[in-house]
Design goal:
By secondary structure, the chain is an alpha+beta fold. 19% of the residues lie in helices and 29% in strands. It has a seven-stranded antiparallel sheet. It comes from Capitella teleta.
Length: 202
């Protein structure tokens, strides 16, 4: 992947008070179960190739794209949340998305293959095959650094719901005027270019 392609995807997901990290290579998404076993490196050649398993269900290839980590810091109007997205190369559109919490158990059992439990069904696994081993290591290190604190509200399943309940309880019984955003809540323009003149060639 080129630096321009990586920057395009990063720009697609970056917003005010949000941290974004983009994988440096294409990633292939598989879905399996806890009994799927580990894929054999020899079977990983070719886009969309189905990995062999040590037993149980096979891994099912889903799609490929650019893997993105999106951290909503919680410093703005959104709750603190950590998400992982498989974005379409060239557009940045979401192909697949899931949230990370303390039950995700993000692991790297092989140099180019990483796994995580799905948030809506923890008996199911997402398998992520990276096209480049060095990029896979960097991505795993980033995930590890973001999920290392078990007290982080982004890792707790009840963290966001608790915050919502407190807001509802505070506003119950009284009509509160919605607070308008300040200058600090609004992000600055992205990729702004001041055009003063246009020629025919433009």
């Amino acid at each position: 992947m080129t630096d321009q392609e990586i920057a395009q995807v990063e720009m697609f997901y970056r917003s005010h008070k949000t941290d974004v990290f983009v994988s440096q290579c294409i990633v292939y998404l598989y879905v399996g179960s806890s009994a799927s076993g580990l894929p054999q490196p020899s079977s990983m050649a070719g886009a969309g190739a189905l990995p062999d398993t040590a037993g149980g269900e096979n891994w099912t290839y889903m799609k490929s794209g650019v893997l993105v980590v999106v951290m909503d810091t919680g410093e703005s109007r959104r709750n603190r949340k950590l998400s992982i997205v498989l974005a379409e190369r060239g557009t940045g559109f979401v192909l697949w998305k899931d949230n990370l919490d303390h039950l995700t158990e993000y692991q790297a059992p092989q140099p180019c293959f990483q796994t995580m439990h799905l948030s809506n069904d923890h008996s199911k696994l997402a398998g992520l095959r990276f096209a480049d081993a060095a990029a896979a290591v960097i991505f795993h290190q980033k995930i590890s650094s973001l999920t290392s604190d078990p007290q982080d509200s982004a890792m707790r399943l009840s963290g966001n719901s608790k915050k919502s309940k407190e807001k509802k309880a505070k506003g119950k019984g009284s009509k509160q005027k919605q607070k308008l955003p300040t200058k600090a809540d609004i992000s600055s323009p992205c990729c702004f270019t001041h055009v003063t003149k246009l020629d025919r060639t433009d």
